[in-house]
Amino acid sequence: GPHRRVAIVDTDLADYKRVKAAGDGATVNDVVLAAVAGALGRFLADRGVEVEGLSLRACVPVSLRPDSKRGALGNEIAIMNAPLPIGLHDPKQRLARVRQAMEHLKSSKQAEGAKVLTSLENALPPAVLARASRLGFSSRLYNLLVTNVPGPQFPIYLLGRRLEELV
Length: 167
Known about the structure:
This protein is an alpha+beta fold. The protein has 5 helices and 5 strands.
């Protein structure tokens, strides 16, 4: 609908890394998605929505950049539509479900297809590329966007003032 809201939550990356370390092969991204699913489940349940068995879809940008190109300019990402099991109340079960779903998506060739489309960037006419890109990024395919893109790993200054936060 037309009524959109943005919520920004500031959390500590170390907490996600601790959960990742204990999470049977989960990634930090898996932990973030599981936390978002839990928060959404509580939010909707508090508003009277029946969440048992309910799953939403998150648009998740995933890096396809190999380690050999780390730090290079340009984007190498794919958009994945990840299920968010908001009806699972147990955090361990929720994380396991998210991890399993993300592993399946990463091996399903969804990411490879997006990478092929990205590699055609210089070969396709802009109008064709724009239309093809919109097919994979249509807001009809997901309920929300979830990303944990890291910010700069060094201090940034503007007019002599240190940047404290990016939103």
